[in-house]
Design a protein that fits this description.
The structure is a single chain. The protein has 413 residues and is α+β, with helices and mostly antiparallel strands. Helices cover 31% and strands 26% of the residues. It folds into two domains: 258 residues, no CATH class; 118 residues, no CATH class. The radius of gyration is 22 Å and the shape is globular.
């Protein structure tokens, strides 16, 4: 089974209509926006996309309906304008951690929904229930895909087909991290070849598992409410498709904060791991620890006693690791679950991709400890998805992130 991928009539900002820069109207994905960033985006412009994806509670009225009303009003005012059906080349130019200049080039279109067991769209992580409910309420109200999910195509040659993207962008901006985002409508002949290529192999969900599951639930609900009328816009989801290739992807780990781990954590961890003290919890110490982890077999620990290299004793954990599906046995997040389970430590976790934030939370006493994980590889992601398995939630952080507000997709027919 392979996925269908279609052009769609995108709805885009007209910055001139609201006298704003696109930088002031776009936002990162909802799940990476903290309280400080949310306030900054809200203040950037009253029509910033954050008002759609993260509407605030107020004394009266439903916040999701308020987002829907804003979307409708902005279209009525001409701030948002519809394109004819198109596929869009989407390019992100950025500087990687090593200092080299990188490009991630993909295509945004409408991806046909299918349950994971059909093998067309493969998840690679578990999900949590709360975000699904929140996103479903928003989708019900707005009847629009406000940001693309990010999927990885197993079809070779997609990047070559898209080319370097030399055409001038229809929409472009530079975000607060210095990433250049460009949106370029594809000519019909290239769009047809891209759709054919994407439809030739399964895709793996990189970012947006919750939104994909939400869209599946919404599509079923829409059939019950409106009847089965054949193919509908609700049967698809807006997706950024990027080739599953190392030169297209930067995959960072999402680290763990342990909450409620109890006293003498190091003494308990010593039963299942070797701990090598690595100095005090300082920014330079954290950077040095992460550098030592690179390419090795150890994770990192930060707690009230400072930093340490954390090497699991695979012989002690052998029985638990053997119960994992084979593609997960080398994944740090899965290994850590086994280790915590063996020690009876509750899996009360928080998640952060930024190691400095993890170290700071431990220093403040907000968490008992933090565990730094190593990134998974593109090959590991492909193997887990192809086997029909899932990594623990919040294992992978793909960067940079596509912006919300470059294009919206209505799901009304």
């Amino acid at each position: 089974m392979v996925p269908d991928f279609f052009p769609f009539p995108g709805v885009r900002y007209r910055p001139d209509a609201c006298r704003a820069r696109l930088e002031d109207l776009t936002a990162p994905p909802y799940d990476v926006i903290d309280a400080e960033a949310r306030a900054r985006l809200e203040a950037a412009h009253p029509m910033n996309a954050v008002h759609l994806i993260l509407p605030r509670d107020q004394e009266s009225g439903d916040r999701y309906q308020r987002a829907a009303q804003r979307l409708e009003e902005w279209q009525r005012q001409g701030v948002l304008e519809a394109d004819p059906p198109r596929l869009y080349l989407y390019r992100m130019a950025f500087t990687a951690e090593g200092g080299e200049r990188r490009l991630t080039t993909g295509v945004i279109g409408a991806l046909a929904l299918s349950p994971p067991d059909q093998g067309e769209v493969l998840p690679h992580e578990r999900t949590m229930p709360k975000p699904r409910g929140d996103r479903l309420d928003l989708l019900r109200a707005t009847r629009a895909n406000l940001d693309p999910v990010w999927v990885l195509s197993m079809a070779p040659g997609l990047s070559d087909l898209l080319g370097p993207g030399d055409s001038p962008p229809t929409a472009g901006c530079i975000d607060t991290d210095g990433v250049e985002h460009c949106l370029i409508p594809l000519p019909d002949d290239i769009a047809a070849r891209v759709s054919e290529t994407v439809g030739s192999a399964p895709v793996v969900i990189a970012d947006g598992h919750h939104r994909y599951e939400t869209a599946l639930a919404f599509a079923k609900e829409d059939v019950r409410l409106r009847g089965d009328r054949g193919p509908r816009a609700a049967d698809q989801i807006m997706a950024l498709v990027v080739e599953l290739a190392p030169n297209q992807l930067c995959v960072r780990p999402i680290h763990r904060l342990l909450l409620g781990a109890g006293p003498d954590l190091r003494g308990r961890l010593a039963r299942v791991a070797t701990l090598d003290p690595a100095g005090p919890n300082t920014p330079e110490g954290v950077r040095t620890l992460l550098a030592r982890m690179d390419g090795g077999e150890a994770m990192g620990l930060v707690d009230g006693d400072g930093l340490a290299m954390l090497t699991l004793r695979l012989d002690v954990l052998h029985a638990g690791l053997e119960r994992l599906p084979a593609p997960l046995r080398d994944v740090d997040s899965a290994r850590l679950e086994v280790a915590l389970g063996a020690l009876g430590i509750p899996e009360a976790l928080d998640f952060h991709a930024d190691p400095a934030t993890v170290a700071a939370e431990v220093a403040k006493g907000t968490a008992d400890a933090g565990v730094f994980l190593r990134p998974v590889s593109v090959a590991q992601i492909q193997a887990v998805a192809a086997a029909g398995e899932r990594m623990p939630e919040k294992t992978t952080y793909f960067s940079p992130k596509p912006l919300t507000g470059m294009v919206f997709r209505p799901v009304d027919d």
